[in-house]
Amino acid sequence: MSLNKTLLLQQLLLGFVILAAIFIAAAEPNSSCVTTCGSLYIPYPFGTSHGCYLDPSFLITCNSSSGTPTPFLNKTEVRNISLDGELRVSAPVARDCPYESGYNPNNSITVLHRQRFPISSKKNKFTIIGCDTIGVIESISISENNYTSGCVSLCDSVDSVVNGTCSGAGCCQTSIPQGLNHFAAALTSLYNYSKVFNFNPCGFGFVVEEEAYNFSSLDLRKLQGQDVVPLVLDWAVGNQTCEDAKKNTTGYACKAANSECQNSINGPGYRCHCSSGYEGNPYLSNGCQDIDECKTSNPCVEKACINHVGYFDCSCPKGYEGDGRRDGTRCSPKPSNSRTIIITLGITISLLALLLGGSSLLLGLKRRKLVRLKEKFFQQNGGLMLQRQISNRGRSMETTKIFSADELKKATNNYDESKVLGKGGYGTVYKGLLPNNKVVAIKKSKICDQNQIEQFINEVIVLTQVNHRNVVKLLGCCLETEVPLLVYEFITNGTLSDHIHDESRASLLSLEKRMKIAVETAKALAYLHAEISMPIIHRDVKSTNILLDDNHTAKVADFGASRLVALDQTQITTLVQGTLGYLDPEYFHTSQLTEKSDVYSFGVVLAELLTGEKAISYFRPENYKNLAMYFVSAVKEDRLIQILEDHIVNDSNIEVLKEVASFATRCLRVRGEDRPSMTEVAMELKGLRTTMEKHPWGKDNQNEEEMVYLLSTPTYSFRIDMGMGSTNATIGQDSISQNLPLKPLDDGR
Ligand SMILES: *[C@@H]1O[C@H](CO)[C@@H](O)[C@H](O)[C@H]1NC(C)=O
Ligand SMILES: *[C@@H]1O[C@H](CO)[C@@H](O)[C@H](O)[C@H]1NC(C)=O
Ligand SMILES: *[C@@H]1O[C@H](CO)[C@@H](O)[C@H](O)[C@H]1NC(C)=O
Ligand SMILES: *[C@@H]1O[C@H](CO)[C@@H](O)[C@H](O)[C@H]1NC(C)=O
Ligand SMILES: *[C@@H]1O[C@H](CO)[C@@H](O)[C@H](O)[C@H]1NC(C)=O
Ligand SMILES: *[C@@H]1O[C@H](CO)[C@@H](O)[C@H](O)[C@H]1NC(C)=O
Ligand SMILES: *[C@@H]1O[C@H](CO)[C@@H](O)[C@H](O)[C@H]1NC(C)=O
Ligand SMILES: *[C@@H]1O[C@H](CO)[C@@H](O)[C@H](O)[C@H]1NC(C)=O
Ligand SMILES: *[C@@H]1O[C@H](CO)[C@@H](O)[C@H](O)[C@H]1NC(C)=O
Ligand SMILES: *[C@@H]1O[C@H](CO)[C@@H](O)[C@H](O)[C@H]1NC(C)=O
Ligand SMILES: *[C@@H]1O[C@H](CO)[C@@H](O)[C@H](O)[C@H]1NC(C)=O
């Protein structure tokens, strides 16, 4: 039995070895492969017969019919193959020689047929030779981008041309684009060479390896007999990227250990090369061999050179230090005796003195430049506009501090990644520590176009007007940096959205806390709409713009999109701005902005507070309009219990929850005028909350919050138009702004 088993095993092993041998034979060339054609060496992946090349696009045919063996790659003559991914072929020359006997105008057009590998845009140039010559190059195809270019070369006499330069006199050149696989070149002339034929009877046009062609005035006659020129193609393996190719180890062409893969920069596919310290053919499994640097070059200062696989070591004689490499720190005597120390010290001190002198000079220059830059940014960032606002208004701006760029840089540890609190379409928010140990949030906007500066100034003005415990406090701003920075009080506990949509936090967010947040948000918005001299429409109410502190006190944030409304204005036409999912459909269709748009957005937040996790899928961009619809229809169809966040519902509170939900649907009514005002919302929710607390389940003790607003600014009138020229529309949780006018999709009225 056991003998049988061993035999079986041996047979299996043998089978495997044979299989492996066949597999390797199929994948790589064997000794019977012909690797030369004439004087050309043909390295794998190229090959001359089946089994010797990687795939048919690397087949080189050797044609000996003309006497000397000539290699061809699909009908194009090959001159040289380099493993760096370059392939030199012979390209045709267009010639226009009207005074030649047997003149054939068709010769003024030449074609390089479609190549498997693209023409190197880095190495080649389209070149025209002649003193009455216009050349055009075209690459026309149905599927790819068409390309047409050309140049003109004119001159009066042979004396006006300069050997070696192609700047339009006798010779002109133009570059070619990436990804070009074929071309047609055509020549024509202005005067049929009648004025120049005694020294330039012909014109020539070709694409040539730039380094391999030097223009000479002798070329003006017959191009010194050349009818083909060298052209470089960029070859690569396959049509995948390295990442994709590596997934299939059998198909992956970088077979050698110590080889690396590199995506082709011109066209699809990838190339292989040996890692540093190795050389050879990376496409063969044993192709990359260690370079014995000690033998091939002389890399060490001293004779002591030790080769290792992949690298080498040099050493320095006793009493010397350094890496011993010619291209490194070489060998220098160790500071040993007192005399050298004194000398070195002397040199060091004088150098130091020099350096210090120099650098302080440089520093002075740099500082002056910095100051100028800061002034520029200050103006560019609306500093003047803000200063005007400040002087117009006097004391209301007093609480807003203008921070210096250095202060904020220090506070954020030079905008360290670890200080990032959040990122969004607007930019980045950093946590900062001011010298007085006050923790702040610093908003750095992303791009700095004029539109955003206006948003920025807008936010500054809006927030300095407002002082309410449920509105995030702006402490100051900085205008000296390229992008303006805003400094806020730091709200410790993240956004409402984080709390609703994070499983562990959501379970801690009781109904009482949710109601507290809803009431506080409503109060803040009611205050903005109705209780300050110049009402403010927030325009971007959403759960990511409501921040919470440790006591779950709500703070409305992000006034970048807000609008100040003059008292006599009831409706404003604006660019639609807001966030899909929260955006009032009426406003979206009509672009008529009223306070009721905030009411709608607040209704969505309220629905979100009640449904929690169950609503998350309705905030995906593809469902953006659905939360409100979904919520409203569930309430109508009496399915509320199915969509409420599970842990907030119990038998005793379901009735009052139904009331809250039904009130939320009033906020979500299609017609703005049917929605309650924010003041009504705040009052109603406060009432409902009190009802809840009268019952035993409402045990959260709430310290009744009071609105604190100190500013009653005198009348002034100004208006900042927002969103001008803005065309970006990000969909999802980010804010959107759209160009108007938007046509009503359906008449909401
Ligand atoms: C090399 O491979 C070719 C084709 O795969 C095969 O015909 C030939 O016999 C092989 N020669 C050797 C020496 O293995
Ligand atoms: C050779 O070139 C022709 C067009 O000139 C093309 O149709 C054919 O696919 C090419 N063959 C290979 C193996 O690239
Ligand atoms: C070899 O080249 C000649 C012309 O140079 C051509 O007629 C012949 O068809 C070619 N043979 C092969 C096998 O490509
Ligand atoms: C041809 O290629 C080899 C390496 O493949 C290289 O050493 C040689 O310099 C190349 N010749 C020309 C003319 O580029
Ligand atoms: C240019 O000159 C040649 C030879 O004299 C003549 O055949 C040809 O028609 C001329 N072409 C033009 C456009 O005049
Ligand atoms: C030039 O080419 C066109 C079409 O390609 C052909 O009709 C014409 O006969 C050719 N002329 C000469 C002189 O070969
Ligand atoms: C290139 O031009 C040709 C003819 O002018 C046209 O038929 C073809 O659609 C163009 N290709 C592209 C990609 O535009
Ligand atoms: C072109 O000229 C430069 C110097 O002007 C020379 O180094 C280079 O070898 C020349 N190339 C050819 C192909 O003649
Ligand atoms: C350009 O170089 C050739 C020799 O290579 C010389 O005969 C000719 O006079 C030169 N032409 C000019 C304009 O310098
Ligand atoms: C990539 O190459 C494979 C085989 O050579 C071919 O089947 C496939 O269609 C090519 N894919 C693309 C996108 O060109
Ligand atoms: C992997 O590459 C080999 C050789 O190119 C091919 O035959 C095989 O189908 C590829 N496998 C997958 C999963 O793509």
UniProtKB/TrEMBL annotation:
Record-level Gene Ontology MF annotations: ATP binding; calcium ion binding; polysaccharide binding; protein serine/threonine kinase activity
Residue ranges annotated for the EGF-like domain, each copy included: 290-332
Keyword Cell membrane included in the entry's annotation: no
Compositional bias segments (type: Polar residues): 730-740
Keyword terms: ATP-binding, Disulfide bond, EGF-like domain, Glycoprotein, Kinase, Membrane, Nucleotide-binding, Phosphoprotein, Repeat, Serine/threonine-protein kinase, Signal, Transferase, Transmembrane, Transmembrane helix
Any one GO CC term of the record: plasma membrane
Protein name: Uncharacterized protein
Organism of origin: Carya illinoinensis (Pecan)
